[in-house]
Every structure is written in C-alpha cells, then in structure tokens.
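Here is a complete protein record:
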Amino acid sequence: MKAQVLLPKIFNFSFTYRTKKEKLTTGDIVEVPFGREKEIGVVWPGENFAPKDIKIKNIHKKIGKISLNKNFINFMKWFAMYNVAPVGLVLKMAIGGNKNLFIKNDKNFDLRITSAKRFNLNKEQRDALKFLNLINNKFDVSVLQGITGSGKTLVYFERIKRIISENKQALVLLPEIFLTNEFKSRFYDFFGFEPAIWHSKITPKNKRIIWNDVINNNIKLVVGARSSLLLPFKKLGVIIVDEEHDTSYKQDEGVIYHARDMAIARASFEKIPIHLVSSIPSLETFNNIQNKKFRHYKINKRYANYPLPKTKIVNLNLKKIKNSFVSDESIKIVKKFLEKKEQVLFFLNRRGYAPYLICKNCGYKQICNNCSMYLTFHKSKNKAICHHCSSEKKISNKCTDEKNCDFIMYGPGVEKIYEEASKLFPASKIEIFSSDYMKKKDHTNSLFSRIRNNQVDILVGTQMISKGFNFPKLNCIVVIDADFSGRGYDLRT
C-alpha cells in the first residue's frame, strides 16, 4: 500500500512512500527516509503514483497518536496557494522542521487556576456581547468597533468564556509579541487561569508542551502573534483578531502573508465565527462593512462614561522654533505633569535618529542600494539603516564623484527626541520605547516594571506604545511632527 507524504521543506509537492502493516490516514505524522537522512512528514491527500521501475522507500513509523485534521490540512493547502508559497514551507510553519514537537512530554501545560475577578458589563457592552453571540456554530465575520477605553476587551472575554464552557478552544491574535505578556495578566484576572502564550520567542520546551496540548484539546485558550494561526487546534470555536487594523499583522519576510486575512480564511475552513476588534477599522475592513460582507457593531461611549482626553494643537507655523522639535508651549505643559509626578510620552512614529542624510554641499542623499528608499541614521549603532529591507551601511564622507560631503541630519527620530528631552528635562528619568531597544526579554520586562512603578518620568516612543499597553500614570502625550503620520507611500497612512 502506498501513501503520499509531505515534508516540511521547500517543496510544493508530496512524495510517494510504501506503508507497512500499520494503517495510516491523512494527517498522520510519520518518519520517513529522505536521502541519507530521516525526516518527519505528514500523510497528505493526493493520488499515489510512481513508475513501475522505481523503488519506493518504506515509511519507518508513525509518530505518536496525533493527527492533523482535514480542515487544517485544507487550510494549509489554500494558504500556500493564495500566498504563492511552497506548501512544504507552510507545513514547516505548522509542525516545525524536526521531531522536537513530538517528543513525549513529562507534563502538560501548567494550568494555574485561581478565583476570577468579577467584571460587570454596562448596557452598551451587553448589547455588543449579544451581537457577537448571535452566530455561534458557523462561519461569520463580525467587527467590534469601539473608541479607546470603551471596554471592547471585556466584551470578547465574555464571548470567549461562553466558547470555553462548550468545551471548545479560542484563539486571540495580537499584533505584537510584546503585547502577549501584557494581556496575560488581564486574562488571568478575568478567567482565573493563564492562557497559553505562543510566539516565535518562546522556548522549544514550551512550544512542544503547548503544541501537543492544543492538538489534544487540553488547552482551551491561546493568545499569540501571527504564528499561532498555524497551530493544530482540535476543536477551535472562535478566533479574535485584536487591533485588526495594525500593520504588524503583515509578515514581510519568508512566507509573506497577512495574518488578519488568513485568520478569516481559517475561520471559514473551520466553519466558526471570527471577531475583528478595533478602535479604527482598517480600510479593507471598512470597505467590507460598507458592502455588508462583515457584520458591524460600535461602542460609542468609554467605560464608566470616562471622559475623552483634552487635546490641544500647537501651530508651529505661528510659533516658530529653531534647532528644536519641541515647542515652548509643549515644554510648559510637560513640566506641569512632571511636577505632579505623572508620566509623559513624546510620541513619534519614526525609529532612529534622523530619517534623511543630505549633503549640504552637493545635495547628495543617502539611499538604499537595494530598494531606493531613504536611509535612516541610527545614532546608537552609528549606521544608516533601510527601514524597508533592513540593509545597513556605514556613513562615508565621500560622494560618488569622490568629493567630500558634509552630511546634515534632516528631521527627527525617537533617538533625536530622546536627546532633546534629556537636555530640556535633565532631572527626569527618560526611556525610549521602540523595537530597536526592546529586543531582549529581560530588558523589556524591566522597562515595563519600571513604568508601572512610576520609576520612569518620560517615555519617547513609536507606534508600538499605542498597541494596548496600560500605563496608569501616563497622563500627557506630546505628538511630535503630527503632520508626518499623514505622509507616506501607503494609502492607509
């Protein structure tokens, strides 16, 4: 008897193997010979074809008692086709490239259960929950929109509680790895247990424990980044995409895909509802709402009728400033909040020190050789970096015609604002909240702890800080170069 086996490698086709006495079904995990090596693979749907004069190798053995279900396999096949990727690479994203996920565990996921806190929904939240609960056992896309602080999270927590009570599983997608730990404590308070956290930075041991408990329906709630979408859930009941408008859901390296769109497809294959949660729906989602493809509910008031923050526009055309990016009026306001021991955020969605390097003698601009984008100077690394393709370059004082250049750094980045804030407020403790400075877990956790304990006075941050973090003492935000957010190469800006 023959079987098709797909290997988690850069192949867009399966291989024919011969089975022994053991009966295999589609989705079984097996060990097979491949060249001189032993590889893992998955019994894949397809016709068994091989020329008569070709010797077919035998499958060594079936690994464990687990099997990928039909819906998940069909989703992976569609995922590969839609994103023009080898199906073997998509399988690798789901099961890894070696036996690590299938080694027998000594224990299951550590489910620490405690008494959950009680949270009462207001009328708008209860109405929103009824809206989400209307459709339960079939595919449906609904959008839960609400202004910042309206309590959208509590609504979908209640939705998840119902799904779990039916012995089904729930997946919550978050745009950033950093958000998973932030949400972990909120889930713990509400449900009385910690969810399984899944992203690329967790240890191989934890990945193995979570993967096996997900496929066996022992884990009911997973909170994760993009990669959690390819976990082999046994009884998936609902998918939540929080901050669905966030650009971080788009993966630009390796297999390129948009996790929000793939989540909708996964829900379609699983025949389950999916909820897109956002304060400002993306352009694509807004279009689908207008065309009646997605159901839509909006929460208009903040939780407990908490007032919206006061805003003030400082017109820099009228109040010109020299050699600075922070106006005198902003400085006065910031000082008032610092005197009250409250935290201040300088927000600028621009990494690095300066977005442009231009020679004041000849006008030469530092441009990426790969993609013709302007290079951003990063003072911490003393390099010019392309934020499009990540290529790096040391700055030379020579132009292409061998003349000497005198580069000026045009425009601000978070490093420049940090430098300026340090001079304006020398007694304050200032930190940069940017992906360039938050690559180490210990440093990141330490920063979160210091912010919550009010040991940081001023934060200088990019868009990362706007993605659901809760800092109780942060009561003043200064948006630097606000016009910049409306400029760019993307129609979504």
Q: What stands out?
A: The chain has four domains: 2-100, 123-304, 309-352+412-493, 356-410. The longest strand covers residues 37-44.
